[in-house]
Design a protein that fits this description.
This is DNA-3-methyladenine glycosylase I. It comes from Brevibacterium rongguiense. The chain is mainly α and 210 residues long. It has ten helices and two strands.
């Protein structure tokens, strides 16, 4: 059994990296559930270089708004099934009947605005291909330097870059791409590194020094 954050922190002290039973230190939220643990150790902060992969992150980060990331991870397998493995052209072709079908599916977040935004954003992603594509567009907002947090309290939830990215995507008619959501996207894809400095995953994107 891996340790939880509250088993390793002293009361009254800021939450720093937590060392698990395997001797590796991680940001505390990684210990909240086995799915979070696996996601942290194998995926979060890794570069995403393909359109479908980046589109998936955009859709899921938007779906997460107002909810926990664990909720999204639990539903991600079903999202991949019903959203055609996030094939942009396939999702862009979804019609009103398909949207209604999705809204009846308990395996995803049944919020009309979020489902419709996924279809809309697929169509906008196709339009971006003429300007280099979704991946290049998002990467163009990556900062030259990254935060270097040692405690959870030092991890930002928004940045100048995520605010600019949000504004640029909204100008392209993307939806559910607010500054906080886009900051989470930049973190998830390694374009900002907010792994705690003592975490074994710090620097995993290769963009910033440990």
């Amino acid at each position: 059994m891996e340790k939880t954050a509250d088993q390793t922190q002293q009361p009254g002290r800021p939450l720093g990296a937590v060392t698990g039973d395997d001797g590796r230190a991680r940001t505390p939220w990684a210990y909240g559930h086995p799915l979070l643990f696996e996601y942290y150790d194998t995926e979060w902060g890794e570069p995403v270089e393909d359109e479908a992969g980046m589109f998936e992150r955009v859709v899921l980060e938007g779906a997460q708004a107002g909810l926990s990331w664990l909720t999204i991870l639990k539903k991600r397998p079903r999202y991949r099934q019903v959203f055609a493995d996030f094939d942009v052209d396939a999702v862009a072709a979804f019609d009103a009947a398909k949207i209604d079908e999705l809204l009846a599916d308990p395996g995803i977040i049944r919020n009309r605005g979020k489902v419709e935004s996924a279809v809309n954003n697929a169509r906008r992603t196709i339009e971006l291909r003429a300007d280099g594509g979704l991946v290049a567009f998002i990467e163009s907002f990556a900062p030259a330097v990254s935060p270097e947090p040692r405690t959870v309290a030092e991890i930002p939830t928004v940045s100048a870059e995520s605010t600019a990215l949000s504004k640029a995507l909204r100008a392209r008619s993307f939806r559910f791409v607010g500054p906080t959501t886009m900051h989470a996207l930049l973190e998830a894809t390694g374009l900002i590194d907010t792994h705690l400095m003592d975490s074994w995953r710090r620097g995993v994107s290769g963009r910033f020094p440990r």
